[in-house]
């Protein structure tokens, strides 16, 4: 119990590790602050290891709970100099630092930034010199057993002990405290504490009691152990793993602390004194916008106005009052919101981008700004598309503008470097983002660290739905998931995974977020190295996106967009070979070829429009302008998707356009009476509810958040405004109820139009510059086998030839090859598996300098062993890149000898030795040992498999595809192509023969297992969906190369798959009409000659014609005896091949004698030309006695 003069708030925890001490602390900030509130403790500190990641969120949460937040960290301190990076600096000291005031808070940020940018060596380190320079406003606790003072005490180094506490006391004076803590199992803890008490008494240096908190509640200790195992890559049964030996690293109550430290109560009371000292008030309402240096004598607003009107004159021929009015309105809003500098910074960045011909675009609502259009930040004319500026910026909302910039992804760093050079390295940074442990990862990780079979975690993870944001509690709704937990192992995994789920696991750099500040960034945010690993990358903030906005810094998005790179590279190819003055911004927006291509649904490789579902809808829509494309991009999402069919029907007058009210006709005409865009919601609120567009934007935001109280207040305002405008109450309610759901999922029109323009560009190039576009597209997929394969499959549907890789003709990337009368695409060598870019560039450089390789010996002589190792050589051979130097099988069999030859040539070259041949001058070359290859002839099947292994696609014709085509000719019911399936009867089960490429088991949202098998047909790959009730029978064929399956065709938004019913292994060695089907035909067919007619049949004379009379033959009849001929299982296969190889006009039939029956089978697919060659071939397999000609 607490003594009478002590209260529950007589202690403050000053040493706390949150989950931002990555994989070390487990305390969630909200739970941590809530626990302190429950303990009636008045304040709490955050002291994460070497970082301030959670400082702002911690500050806000504590303030919400009326708890005083104390911002600090447990710093890593170098033993000597933090710039020194030697082996003795691998284990830095620990030191607890707390910010006393705002100066101290800023100094902590400077210390953390230094430790990460300059002092990082295994850990982010400061040193005493840096600490002293930034000591103002900081309270220092001497630290845990890993501190400098504690280590000196452990080592009984009395001189160092004295010097250490003496230095800290001298520098920090009354802000230095001896830190005392106690945890079971920590070596020398008692020894340290006894010495600290002695120092306190001898030197009057105050001490303070802390608990080294790593989790919130005591019962979390086991889950924390597992977290530590994750950090150290060990498991719970590892006797050597790092662990905490007691279970008291939790946030203790004041009573618990006084019970533990009743003899040192002064140390507990001192925590209150420190808490009283610490008073940080952060201004989270200020704006720290960057300042643009304008020409002398001009304010930011004056210069922005000047630039805007200069751009306006360039963009528009007339000074139409409507345009001037809009420009002036936007400038007025920008001035009143105090954002002119921000617009100038954006202009400056795009001035650089445009001067360097870096292709760019702007996403989001920024495209609605006429000012940005005039500044050439955006390329979308907002007036042409009727875009609402208030969706981007308005006086009512007064939020910072958000301009999301897209650049060619391989040139984004050029833009970043420009900003660093222009605004200073201390003023620009990228933004950090944190990855948390998801449900699936949690169960798998917990399984591993519990040392259980990995199948346990896989089984659980497989049942958890893949939907983003799914929690373990959601999976508990699934019966199979709950049922598994009857087993103790599964139950244990779920129990601990639930505790660890959502814990922050790692930090990374945001893909796009960038901040540019007016002042030195470390005044407002701590920085660290970029996680990209690139030395020239700007640093990364330690505050994530939300905290950045809280402290008043403005986020910009610099996003690298692959599609812009594709477009940029296409433009380069066009300018280099066709039109050097080609300008993407001046192309027609009404190009017939482009809209014809879109109307055909030929949208592979077209930005935003290439999914199967989108292809279907675009084909149905047959867009006739960019607005149509924009609308489809907006509609093709969950929610509005249900309106697509109505939109298309209305466009073509197949459905009458209905407007909710006549007052909405003008607003909804463009979209055929359907609310598609957020902009329309704003205008409806204006037209009906009397809102300004700025107020309407606030309404839109409120609708999106769906906060009941806020929504009711907005509805009341809307109804009141509607009544004032003369609408009746029922109509007002009806319209509000109409726009409410759309506000949540309707799309930002400016964003749609921006994306529609990029989609149009990509379609334009595909329609008009096909070979240039496909070459650029392939190069964007350079390391992605699957994408390259898909792209080449698409290319092969056109008249473009794509050539196999060649050591003599390929470049590093895919390239256009100019022939006399044709242009083709040559496969790039850097796309070969196991062939690095460095090796490729060296090989190509050698070829460019000294000519093509004419022989294998010459290739060996000119190569270098540093460029070509065994894997590289094998890949070059298997891919066909060395076909001009020998057969692939022969080359592959000789790889060791080839490598030896290359090594010898390299050694000789590098030795600088003079050979006897050097005496005769350059014209006499050093001889190379001739390489004699075994005379192999690699078959097409082997070549095809090697090509698929190395290239992801084959250039050699697939022999299986040949056989599959023959089968489809013989039996039209056998589907061997996607084209056949697309044209098949969707109501009937279809039979498909294809190559089994891969299979994967998955779990549905309802917890049912299913499998997806990818079948390769002659024109692409199709998914075969196998549901749970059919899974057991799949094993009998799924491992075979070829399968014959049956099932219904499923069309989901244009994405075709087969829902499996049955299947079996299939072999081309079996009959083309497989024996099973052959026998089914025997049993099911109506005999031409029945048993009853047997005697009559025996009287029928089948005449045998002389050889010279074969030209008069009307029918070829083959007779087979089932008993005699069925032993040869390849017989029907052989006969059919012979017949197909002798194609002609004469029909063929087969009479099969089966017991006492004769059955006649007509073969309409196999009309022949009766010839001597046909006779000889049939004689070889069945004898001429079984072949008859009928006139």
Sum this structure up briefly.
This protein has 1191 residues and is α/β, with parallel strands linked by helices. The longest helix has 20 residues, at 749-768.
List the helices and strands and how they pair.
Layout: H1 29-38, E1 43-49, H2 55-64, E2 68-77, E3 93-99, H3 102-117, E4 125-126, H4 128-133, E5 138-141, H5 148-154, H6 158-172, E6 176-180, H7 189-203, E7 207-209, H8 221-232, H9 254-260, H10 265-277, H11 300-315, H12 321-336, H13 340-355, E8 360-363, H14 370-374, E9 404-408, H15 412-423, E10 428-436, H16 439-449, H17 454-463, H18 472-475, H19 479-484, H20 488-500, E11 504-516, E12 527-528, E13 540-541, H21 545-550, E14 555-561, H22 562-577, H23 592-599, H24 612-621, H25 626-635, H26 644-651, H27 665-668, H28 678-689, H29 693-705, H30 708-724, H31 729-745, H32 749-768, H33 770-780, H34 785-795, E15 801-803, E16 815-818, E17 823-826, H35 837-850, H36 856-862, H37 870-878, H38 888-893, H39 895-911, H40 940-951, H41 959-970, E18 974-975, H42 978-982, E19 990-1003, E20 1009-1017, E21 1020-1026, E22 1042-1052, E23 1055-1065, H43 1075-1084, H44 1094-1099, E24 1115-1121, H45 1122-1125, H46 1131-1141, E25 1143-1154, E26 1157-1168, H47 1172-1182, E27 1187-1190
Parallel strand pairs: 1-2, 2-4, 5-6, 6-7, 9-14, 15-17, 18-19, 21-23, 24-25
Antiparallel strand pairs: 2-3, 3-5, 8-9, 10-11, 11-14, 12-13, 16-17, 19-20, 19-22, 20-21, 22-23, 24-27, 25-26
Helix pairs in contact: 1-2, 5-6, 8-20, 11-13, 16-17, 16-20, 22-32, 22-33, 23-32, 25-32, 28-29, 28-30, 28-31, 29-31, 30-31, 32-33, 36-39, 46-47
